[in-house]
Write a structure and sequence with these properties.
Blueprint (H helix, E strand, L loop, with lengths): L9 H30 L22 H6 L15 E4 L2 E4 L16 E4 L2 E4 L5 H11 L4 H5 L1 E5 L4 H6 L5 E5 L26 H10 L7 H9 L25 E2 L3 E2 L29 E7 L25 E5 L18 E5 L7 E2 L3 E3 L3
Parallel strand pairs: 9-12
Antiparallel strand pairs: 1-4, 2-3, 4-13, 5-6, 7-8, 9-10, 10-11
InterPro entries: CTDL_fold, Sulfatase_Mod_Factor_Kinase, SUMF_dom, SUMF_sf
GO molecular function: gamma-glutamyl hercynylcysteine sulfoxide synthase activity
Protein name: Hercynine oxygenase
Length: 360
């Protein structure tokens, strides 16, 4: 049976959406709590009761992410808008199946205290609101450019290493491919071409911070352990459940996941902590300095194409992989994955999300 109705005003439209979202979230919350309890042997999920009365973003499908405007419910009215709360707990930090610098220290058991975390990457719409309110000028604008991905030609591949990366003058968070480009149709995508300092400035505007690497991984693993965390993310039907590269990197993307390049936030199902895109789409800044071996098999050092006059900054940990990670290159579409990025180098595959820690 279908029901036909007509909304007579914008207020009525938003009211209807709010009612639908409330019902949907109540069902989702109950299901998430039950599933997490079952997976943890009946233990309380880190996705806890503080989330029950909150209107969370209704995402998880192509239809929902496409129509999402990029601003969570009660944006700027609620200091925790768009966030979920995770109580503290222990988890295995790292992976024995990934790269050398992902190996756990000892048994890997690590404790994190409770915190709030954004359900999605910070969007262009959210960052634009920050810039409008504060007049902030990003590092990419100050530096006069950013590192941008493009599919290289055969000639480019033969001419130089890392031919898919180019320093584009005039590229910035609001000019994603360079001068003349804009954010039309992209306000619901992750903001990229932001440095760690840009991400911190946004976070502090809201009274928040960037996650530590341990906090990020605790949230990304969502109460799970085991080898499944280190395989390419696919759903029960075998379809990719995140935005990463299928095909031959960097020349052929078969688009099996439905997106070439960045996708809007929340196009794929959330993890068991109701967090979207913890794997793929855009790498995410953390507040931690990178340490560990510098492997020959890396994500492709974007600093190699930056201007020679640019000073090299501290390498920081980024997490989660991006739309560029593939089976034959990078292989970092995993919660335990980690990579380094110079703190002040803006790039087209790196964004962030924020946290608000519980009072100690």
């Amino acid at each position: 049976m279908s029901v036909r109705f007509k909304l007579k005003s914008t207020a009525a439209l938003y009211g209807a959406y709010a009612a639908i979202a409330t019902v949907a979230f109540t069902a989702a919350f109950t299901a998430a709590m039950a599933a997490s309890a079952a997976l943890s042997g009946g233990k309380q999920s880190a996705f806890d009761e503080l989330n029950r009365s909150r209107a969370l973003v209704a995402l998880g499908s192509e239809q929902q992410c496409e129509r999402y405007a990029g601003l969570p419910s009660r944006w700027r009215d609620d200091p925790k808008a768009g966030m979920v709360h995770l109580h503290g707990g222990n988890f295995v930090f790292g992976s024995k199946l990934g790269y050398e610098d992902e190996r756990p220290a000892g048994d890997g058991q690590t404790h994190v205290a409770g915190f709030w975390i954004d359900q999605t990457d910070v969007t262009n719409a959210q960052f634009a609101a920050f810039v409008k309110a504060t007049g902030y000028v990003s590092d990419s604008e100050r530096q006069g450019g950013a590192v941008v991905f493009h599919t290289p030609t055969r000639e480019e591949m033969n001419a130089r290493d890392l031919a898919w990366w180019t320093w584009v003058k005039g590229a910035a968070w609001n000019h994603p491919t360079g001068p003349g480009s804009n954010l039309d149709g992209r306000m619901n995508q992750p903001v990229t071409m932001v440095t760690q300092a840009d991400a911190l400035a946004y976070a502090r505007w809201l009274g928040r911070d960037l996650p530590t690497e341990a906090e990020w991984e605790y949230a990304g693993k969502a109460g799970h352990e085991g080898a499944d965390l280190d395989t390419a993310p696919r759903d029960q039907r075998g379809k990719p459940s995140a935005n990463y590269w299928q095909g031959v990197f960097p020349v052929l993307n078969t688009n099996e996941d439905g997106h070439i390049g960045l996708a809007p936030v929340g196009c794929y199902a959330a993890n068991d902590f109701k967090l979207y895109d913890m794997i793929g789409n855009a790498w995410e800044w953390t507040r931690d300095v990178y340490s560990g071996p510098h492997q020959s098999h890396t994500n492709g050092d974007t600093a190699a194409v930056a201007p020679a006059s640019r000073k090299h900054d501290t390498p920081m940990v980024i997490k989660g992989g991006s739309f560029l990670c593939s089976r034959d290159y990078c292989v970092r579409y995993r919660a335990a994955s980690r990579e380094q990025q110079e703190a002040d180098l803006p790039a087209s595959h790196i964004g962030f999300r924020t946290v608000l820690r519980d009072a100690s």
